[in-house]
Write a structure and sequence with these properties.
The protein has 394 residues and is mostly helical. The chain is built from 18 helices and two strands.
Length: 394
């Protein structure tokens, strides 16, 4: 009976999350095309290849072909991505016993709730970066060649949607390693390594060098006939003409000790339950003492992106969701010991559960920028935002 009530609360929460995504995305269309998120979606290839332009070009061509307004197509892609991403987790949690470990992830302020709590993070292309990685973890390859094909295709598409994917290549490599080493059990040869290097270097070359020669003025003028007024200096578009070192120095100049402490605190309180609950299944002896080392290495590899982006809250959201998707992959492939998670969940006292749940899910939340103070009571604030939105617009 208690398990049924717990599941019911979880699925009601997911319903609330989905409705919030849809309503906020719909009503923020009033800010099209000036809001930062829309300037990112409007990047296309009409002025030549440029980074982040793939999905914008797809939408541009669909608009030409169907006569649908670009802003409506963007909304369709946004809602579709959030819907698919969230429904996967609804399906996943409908198939397992939801214990305290999973509750901490579901209700964490940096998982599903974050884009609603911080609306500047809602509707970003990041959702496709997460969705494509999730797809890679779910695909079942029959042999090593097909696994490489899926990796090349999915990783390349994700990089062309947003170059931030490069900073998460180690997750792709880890999933690839587990799939081929424990399930396919085939040997990688020089041909595979050669093609992998070629693809990665080609993507880096396209994003860092070829994209620099794009004629942004032509991209801007491509929207004139659609009565969309934007300029080269608007939002995400303005960053396309700036070298990488501009991003670096822009962030370095704003980093402070208090900012580092804020985000270290948020990430640590969400990371500690993972170290506490996760253990490798006894069938995977060679990994048994290495899972915590793997997670620690993952955390270290997630740090470089922080020196190239001001929106540390969004980066923390991405880092946490990538980590959870990876852990779910290990769980679904039975590499993680699910019985151990259950036993550890039952051993925790109610007081400790209340403290942990309150700290991770109810009290603290990162804002969008590294210079912002920590947010508080994120679930309450997100709910009041939704109620105000409905009251004033419906």
């Amino acid at each position: 009976m208690q398990s049924y009530k717990k599941n019911k609360i979880v699925f009601l929460y997911f319903l609330y999350i989905l409705l919030s995504y849809i309503l906020f995305l719909f009503f923020q269309l009033e800010q099209f095309p000036n809001k930062y998120v829309y300037t990112d979606w409007l990047i296309n290839y009409e002025g030549g290849f440029v980074r982040r332009g793939l999905i914008g070009q797809v939408i541009y061509e669909l608009s030409n072909f169907t006569d649908f307004k670009i802003k409506n197509l963007i909304l369709f892609f946004q809602i579709g991505a959030y819907l698919i991403y969230t429904l996967f987790f609804v399906y996943f949690f409908s198939k397992i016993k939801i214990n305290f470990f999973w509750l901490l992830f579901i209700f964490s302020s940096i998982s599903f709730l974050y884009p609603i709590g911080e609306l500047e993070a809602l509707g970003r292309k990041d959702i496709f970066v997460l969705l494509l990685f999730l797809a890679f973890t779910l695909i079942r390859a029959s042999n090593l060649n097909s696994l490489f094909f899926y990796f090349f295709t999915i990783f390349s598409v994700s990089c062309l949607i947003h170059e931030i994917t490069f900073f998460y290549i180690y997750y792709y490599f880890l999933v690839f390693y587990f799939k081929y080493n424990f399930f396919l059990k085939e040997r990688i040869n020089l041909k595979h390594l050669f093609f992998t290097l070629i693809i990665i270097f080609a993507l880096i070359f396209l994003n860092l060098y070829v994209g620099e020669s794009a004629k942004l003025s032509e991209m801007i003028s491509s929207y004139s006939e659609k009565n969309i007024k934007i300029s080269v200096g608007d939002g995400a578009i303005s960053w396309l003409s700036k070298p990488v070192e501009n991003h670096f120095f822009n962030v370095i100049n704003k980093i402070s000790a208090i900012g580092i402490l804020r985000y270290t605190f948020i990430f640590l309180i969400n990371l500690l339950p993972i170290f506490y609950f996760i253990r490798i299944n006894e069938n995977f002896v060679e990994l048994k003492n290495n899972i915590k080392k793997i997670i620690l290495i993952i955390v270290l590899f997630s740090l470089p992106i922080y020196i190239l982006a001001l929106d540390w809250g969004r980066i923390t959201y991405l880092n946490y969701n990538f980590l959870i998707i990876f852990l779910i992959f290990l769980f679904k492939t039975k590499i993680i010991d699910s019985d151990y998670i259950e036993r550890k969940s039952k051993k925790i006292s109610k007081i400790k559960k209340i403290v942990a749940f309150s700290s991770i899910c109810l009290i603290f939340s990162p804002k969008i920028l590294l210079t912002d103070d920590l947010g508080t009571i994120p679930l309450y604030k997100a709910l009041t935002k939704l109620l105000k939105l409905v009251y004033y617009n419906l």
